[in-house]
Amino acid sequence: MPSWTFLLVSLSAFWWAFQAVRLVRAAGSLPRMAAMPRETRPAWPRLSIVIPARNEATHLADAVQTRLAEGYPQLELVIVDDRSDDDTGAIADRLAAGDPRLAVVHVDALPDGWLGKVHAMQQGLARASGEWVLFSDADIHLAPGTLERVVAWAEREGVDHVAALPSVTARATLEPVLAGFFRMLTTLLRLPAIADPRSDVAAGSGAFNLVRRSALDRSPGLEWLKMEIADDFALGVMLKRSGARQAMVVGGRFVTLEFYPSYRMLVRSLERTGANVSAPVVIAVIALLVALELGWLVGFTQPGPATWLALATYVVAAATQFGASRWLGVPRWPALLPGVAIIPLGWALVRSALLAWRRGGVVWRDTFYPTAVVRAGMRLGRRQPKMGSSRSS
Fold first, then answer.
1. pLDDT tens digit string along 18-69?
2. N or C: which end of the chain has fewer CB within 10 A?
């Protein structure tokens, strides 16, 4: 039996054991919206939902209706139509005409030095009047009572920023990718440390980033994030570095969305990440993850200790994937194929890096951004300015 076989299986076994431990810790520490009571109060703080939308005609009306019907007493919705060339703007205007709680901001041009989504968020924030602001993507659905539960819980716990993990549905062919993506997301990040003010671990969620306006005012602001592609995550990092109390919660049935309608759409969406890191680094990292996620398979090529270790690793991997899927409310049957998601996900990321290398940049929301501009605008890992210094530095 070649020594490299047992070594690779051992590394893969350690990797899956590491993920299993991370999952158990996260599942035992993260609050769940389902456990937050829906309170009755004589008065509620005003809450503004900011929805940046570009070419979202397919999803916008249904998703907005769930938020209007959500039941929060002091609710304001601000839809930002970001240079859409479909019926997004007309749908938003029609919805606003039928409900005074809804306002629409139309963005016709993108200023230099801004990413389209972050600029749309900034325009929506400028229009919003709430003490709390929820940044949420255009295709997110909220169940009745969601905001009352979360706002009451945040005020009771003294939390300034709540990021929610959504429950996601997908077509059957994409369910393994969906399940694997969320499992890796929740095990690679130390989720319990997000709520610890002594830790520098922070996070955000494009599906549900609820922020106390006063905490956002104490931060460098969205202008500092104007060229950050991972805007949702970077928002959480910026807020925590500014002293905001932060929490990650499990949304479950209260915050839902549909995964990409096709693998092609997923691949196209991930193209925007291609300029973040050089292609050789991306290829090396994906190769390592493939070895860790699927390395246990080589143990079945020859009988002996490696085979038994591979079998044990499969059991741990399947249990970890099943546990993560059950916890997050995503399909569970992909647990039969643990680790397989790294192949389509890895290919999409490698492809995005190679495209960015060939093009010299990335295209996002129909705007081209050179690699040098993207990397200069990245904020994750950079020191942020103190309040009172330039917000655009």
1. 999 999 999 999 999 999 998 888 899 999 999 999 999 988 999 999 999 9
2. C
State pLDDT tens for residues 190-201.
999 999 999 999
Distances (CA, A) of 345 to 16, 54, 180, 289: 18, 24, 9, 11
Please indicate, yes or no, whether residues 236 and 107 belong to a single structural domain of this protein.
Answer: yes
DSSP class of residue 277?
Answer: S
DSSP per-residue letters across 308-357: HHHHHHHHHHHHHHHHHHHHHTS-SGGGGSTTTTHHHHHHHHHHHHHHHH
Q: Are residues 63 and 109 in the same domain?
A: yes
The SS3 assignment for 78 reads: strand
Contact 118, 374 (CB under 8 A): no
Q: Which of 116, 57, 4 is nearest to 369 (CA)?
A: 116
112-161 pLDDT, tens digit per residue, is 889 999 999 999 999 999 999 999 999 899 999 999 999 999 999 999 99
From residue 177, give the alpha-carbon distance in Å to each of 24, 135, 139, 170, 233: 21, 26, 19, 9, 21
Q: Which domain covers residue 74, as residue numbers?
A: 30-176+188-260
